[in-house]
Specification:
By secondary structure, the chain is of the alpha/beta class. The protein is 47% helix and 14% strand. The chain has 24 helices and 17 strands. The strands form three sheets. Strands 3-4-6-7-8-9-10-16 form an eight-stranded parallel beta barrel, surrounded by four helices. The protein has a five-stranded antiparallel sheet with strand order 12-11-15-14-13. The chain has a three-stranded antiparallel sheet with strand order 1-2-17. A hairpin with a 4-residue loop joins strand 13 and strand 14. Helix 15 runs parallel beside helix 17 and helix 18 crosses helix 19. The protein is elongated and about 135 Å long. The N and C termini lie far apart (132 Å).
C-alpha cells in the first residue's frame, strides 16, 4: 500500500525528517540558560476512538429498522478495535475527503482507508518516542510545547462523516446477510437431495456406525391446498412441509353428509405428499353457511358427519381432521364446544392417533369461541390470518396485529405449542380515496401479483410497522397522482419477519395459505427452508450396536434356529414390513447378526439385480426379502404335503374298497391320513398368512415409496436410486385392513373353534342321529 496516499499534509510539515524547527534564538550567556528549568515535556492525551464516536451517534439516531441499526453498529464496533484510529480533526477530514470520491464508496475501500490511518498512527507513535528524546536533549536550552493533539473533532464533522459511512456499512450488512442466507438455503437443498446417501463414522470405541443426514423443521410446517385453485402440484416442495392440509370438504348443514368432496376421492396431490413423507390433514368446512346454527343444534347430523369424516380419514390415510367453520355467533359458542368434545371423544375411541385441529379466525373483537374449553379437546389451534375481517384498507397479517392476536389467544390459556399461525400467500386488493371510504375488492394471489403486476409499473413500498409490502396504482388523469387501488401482500422479505416472530415466541407451528397461491415462485419456499429447516443426523442402527462379521460356517441346527427366529418374528407381526421397527433393541441386534450370518444382504442384492434386469419391482427391505423366502418355503412344503396327502388318500380309498374292514392297517393309515391332513391345513393356512397376495392379514408390501433404512446402501449403487423419495418406507400404513394378530393366536382361536365343534358333534349331534336309527 502507498502510505503517502493516506498521510495528512499537516503531518508532513511537523514530522519531516524527524527534525524540530523553532524561531526562538539561543541566549548569549550559557550559565543563565542552565539555571532555567523548563517544565517536563507534556505527553499527548489519548485521543478518543473516532469510529466509536460515530457508532454512538448512530445509536441515538431514529432509524426505520432497529435490527438493521443494530447490525450496522456491530460492524462499526468491529472496525473499532483496540488499535482504533484517533478522533483527530486530520483523520476526520481525511476520511470525509476520501469517501466523497465515488471510487471509495464501498466497504473494502473504507476498510483500506481505516487500515492506512492505523498504520500511519503506528509510525506516528514511534516518531513521537524519538521526538521526546530530542526534547529532553534540548530542555536545557529552550521551552517547547506542542498542541497538535489538542485539536478536536467538531460535531458537524462527525455528522458529515457518519452520513458517508452509514450507507456503506448498511449495504455491507444487507449483502452479507443475503449471501449467508442463500448459502444456507443451497446447503439445505443439497442435504434434502442426499437423504438416501449412507455415511459412516467411527466412534471413540472404534465401532462403525452408519447414518444419514436429513433436513427436519424446527417446528411443524403446514401447507394448505385449495382444490378449486387447481394449480400444478408437481411444483410443490412437499419435503419442505410436515403436513398437507387438504380442503375444503364442505359439510351439508342440514343432514351432516358431505356436500362437496372437492376431489378428495381422486386427488393425486395426497399421494404425492405422502410419498414425500408428509402427513395429511383433511379440512371440513361450513364457512358462511346460514345453516351452521341448525347443524350445531342437531346431534343426529353431527353423528352423521363424524361417521363420514372418520371414513374419509381412513380412506385417504390422513392423520388429522381440521374443522373450519369461520366466525360464529355468541349463541353458537356452547354448542360448538359440545360438538368438538363429541368429535374428540369419537376420535379417542376409534383411533387416538388421529389429531384434531381447529381453524379459528385471527380476531379479538367478536371472537365467540370458548378457547379455554376447546383447548382441552384439540391438538392444535390454527389462528387464521388468511381472511379479511377489516372494513378499512389493511393487510391480512400485520406484525402488530399478529402480536395482539397471539397475546389474546395465550391469555385464553392456549399453550404456545398448540398455536399454529396461518399466514397468507395472497394479498388483498382495495379501492381507496374514492370519496366513499375504503372498499375491499378481492383476494389476489402471490402468483398473480408476480405475473400480472410488473414492479416497474407500480409503486411498491414496505411498511415496517406492519411488515407488509404495499403496491399502489394511481389515476393518471388526476394531478397530483392519487392512489386509487392498493394491494397489501407478503413477499420473501416481509414473510421472513413473521417467521422470525413465530420462532422467537416458540409457537407450535406455521401454516402456508395456500400452496396454490405461491405456485412455482421459489422465494417463499426458500424462506420456509431458511427459517425452519435444520440438518439432523439419522443413525440407521442403535447407537450401541456394533456391526458384526459373519460367523464361521453355521451348523445345520444353528442355521435352522436363526432362520426360525427371523420367520417367527414375521408370523408374530403379520402387519409389519421392516425388522428395524422392532422396539426390542437387543432382539433387533440379534436379528442383524442372524441376517449377517445368513448373508441376507448379498443374497437380496443379487436378487434385486435380477429383478431390475427384468424391469420388476425390487425388494425394499430385508424384512420383505426374508418374508418372501418364508412364503416360498411354506408354499413348497404345502405342495409336498398336499402331494403326500393326495397319494395317501388314494391309497387309503383303494385299500378300503378292496379289503374293507379286513385290512389290518386301516386304523394306522387312517390316523396317518388325519395327521397329514392337519399338517396340510397348518402349512396351507400359514402360507396364506405370510403371502402378500392374500388380503386382510399377513405381511404386505408398503404403499410408501422409498426403501427401508437398512437397504439404502444397496440402492445407492444401483438404478433404483431415483426411486428413493424418502426414508419413511417402514412407516405403518394407517388405512391398511391388515389384522395384526400373531399366527399362534389365530391358530389357537381356530383350534378352540374346532374342538368346540367336535364336542358338539360328538356329544350332541351324534347321539341324536343314533336315536333316529334305532327301530
Amino acid at each position: 500500500m502507498n502510505r503517502s496516499a493516506y498521510v495528512h499534509q499537516g503531518y508532513h510539515s511537523f514530522y519531516s525528517a524527524d527534525t524540530i524547527t523553532s524561531t526562538d534564538t539561543v541566549p548569549p550567556v550559557a550559565e543563565k540558560l542552565k539555571a532555567i528549568k523548563p517544565p517536563p515535556f507534556p505527553k499527548p492525551p489519548k485521543a478518543p476512538n473516532l469510529l466509536k464516536m460515530i457508532g454512538d451517534i448512530f445509536k441515538f439516531k431514529k432509524h426505520r429498522d432497529q435490527n438493521e441499526k443494530a447490525r450496522v453498529i456491530d460492524i462499526i464496533n468491529g472496525l473499532s478495535i483496540t488499535d482504533s484510529i484517533s478522533a483527530s480533526a486530520e483523520n476526520t477530514r481525511f476520511l470525509i475527503d476520501k469517501l466523497s470520491d465515488t471510487v471509495n464508496q464501498n466497504f473494502d475501500s473504507l476498510v483500506a482507508l481505516i487500515q492506512g490511518i492505523k498504520e500511519y498512527q503506528l509510525g506516528d507513535s514511534l516518531r513521537q518516542m524519538n521526538l521526546e528524546k530530542k526534547y529532553l536533549d534540548l530542555s536545557d536550552f529552550m521551552t517547547i510545547s506542542k498542541d497538535k493533539y489538542s485539536t478536536t473533532v467538531t460535531e458537524k464533522q462527525l455528522n458529515v462523516l457518519a452520513s458517508k459511512i452509514f450507507p456503506i456499512v448498511s449495504l455491507k450488512t444487507e449483502v452479507t446477510d443475503l449471501q449467508n442466507k442463500m448459502d444456507r438455503v443451497r446447503m439445505l437443498e443439497r442435504l434434502r437431495d442426499s437423504t438416501y446417501i449412507t455415511r459412516t463414522v467411527i466412534d471413540t470405541s472404534g465401532a462403525e456406525k452408519k447414518f444419514r443426514i436429513r433436513v427436519k423443521n424446527k417446528i411443524p410446517v403446514f401447507g394448505f391446498y385449495n382444490f378449486e385453485a387447481g394449480y400444478d402440484n408437481n411444483k410443490y416442495k412437499f419435503n419442505y412441509i410436515n403436513t398437507l392440509v387438504y380442503g375444503n370438504i364442505v359439510i351439508n348443514s342440514q343432514n351432516g353428509n358431505i356436500r362437496y368432496l372437492n376431489g378428495l376421492d381422486t386427488a393425486s396431490i395426497i399421494e404425492r405428499a405422502q410419498k414425500a413423507g408428509c402427513d395429511v390433514a383433511l379440512t371440513f368446512s361450513m364457512e358462511g353457511d346460514p345453516g351452521l346454527n341448525d347443524f350445531l343444534h342437531n346431534y343426529t347430523s353431527q353423528e352423521t358427519f363424524i361417521t363420514s369424516a372418520l371414513y374419509f380419514i381412513k380412506f385417504r390415510n390422513a392423520s388429522a381432521i381440521n374443522i373450519s367453520l369461520g366466525a360464529i355467533s355468541y349463541s353458537m359458542a356452547e354448542n360448538y364446544t359440545l360438538f368438538i368434545q363429541k368429535l374428540a371423544d369419537r376420535l379417542q375411541k376409534t383411533n387416538d392417533n388421529i389429531k384434531l385441529l381447529l381453524t379459528i379466525p385471527a380476531v379479538i373483537a367478536d371472537n365467540n369461541y370458548q378457547l379455554t374449553e376447546l383447548n382441552r379437546f384439540c391438538n392444535g389451534i390454527i389462528v387464521d390470518f388468511s381472511k379479511n375481517y377489516s372494513a378499512t384498507a389493511a393487510p391480512l397479517a400485520p406484525i402488530t396485529g399478529m402480536t395482539d392476536v397471539i397475546a389474546y389467544f395465550i391469555k385464553q390459556k392456549i399453550e404456545t405449542d398448540k398455536i399454529i399461525v396461518c399466514l397468507p400467500y395472497r394479498g388483498t386488493k382495495w379501492a381507496i380515496n374514492s370519496g366513499f371510504g375504503d372498499r375491499f375488492i378481492e383476494y389476489i394471489s402471490y402468483k398473480t401479483i408476480r405475473s400480472n403486476y410488473p414492479f416497474s409499473a407500480y409503486t411498491v413500498t414496505y411498511a415496517d410497522s406492519t411488515a407488509t409490502a404495499v403496491m399502489d396504482s394511481s389515476n393518471i388523469h388526476r394531478i397530483p397522482h392519487v392512489p386509487i387501488r392498493r394491494i397489501f401482500y407478503d413477499d420473501e422479505n416481509t414473510i421472513a419477519k413473521k417467521y422470525e416472530f413465530i420462532l422467537k415466541n416458540k409457537l407450535g407451528g406455521v401454516a402456508m395459505y395456500t400452496l396454490n397461491d405461491n405456485d412455482s415462485y421459489t422465494g417463499l419456499w426458500d424462506e420456509i427452508s431458511y427459517a425452519f429447516g435444520m440438518p439432523d443426523t439419522l443413525f440407521l442402527a442403535s447407537n450401541s450396536f456394533v456391526p458384526k462379521k459373519a460367523s464361521q460356517k453355521l451348523g445345520f441346527f444353528e442355521e435352522l434356529s436363526e432362520r426360525f427366529s427371523l420367520y417367527n418374528y414375521i408370523l408374530q407381526n403379520p402387519c409389519e414390513i421392516c425388522y428395524e421397527n422392532d422396539a426390542d433393541t437387543a432382539q433387533r441386534d440379534r436379528f442383524d447378526q442372524y441376517m449377517t450370518d445368513l448373508k441376507v444382504d448379498s443374497l437380496m442384492k443379487s436378487e434385486n439385480e435380477k429383478l431390475m434386469a427384468n424391469h420388476e419391482d425390487t425388494f425394499r427391505s430385508k424384512f420383505e426379502y426374508v418374508n418372501e423366502q418364508l412364503t416360498t418355503l411354506l408354499l413348497r412344503i404345502t405342495i409336498i404335503v398336499f402331494i403326500l396327502l393326495l397319494g395317501l388318500g388314494i391309497f387309503y380309498f383303494i385299500k378300503i374298497k378292496n379289503k374293507g374292514d379286513t385290512w389290518k392297517w386301516k386304523k394306522i393309515v387312517g390316523r396317518l391320513l388325519v395327521g397329514v391332513s392337519l399338517f396340510f391345513i397348518l402349512f396351507f393356512f400359514t402360507w396364506m398368512f405370510s403371502s402378500n397376495v392374500i388380503p386382510f392379514f399377513g405381511a404386505s408390501v408398503s404403499a410408501n415409496s422409498g426403501y427401508s433404512k437398512d437397504y439404502a446402501a444397496f440402492a445407492n449403487s444401483t438404478a433404483v436410486t431415483d426411486k428413493i423419495l424418502n426414508t419413511d418406507y417402514c412407516r405403518a400404513d394407517k388405512t391398511s385392513d391388515c389384522i395384526n394378530m400373531p399366527l399362534q393366536t389365530l391358530l389357537g382361536i381356530v383350534i378352540i373353534g374346532l374342538l368346540i365343534g367336535y364336542l358338539i358333534t360328538r356329544y350332541l349331534l351324534m347321539p341324536l342321529l343314533k336315536r333316529q336309527d334305532i327301530p
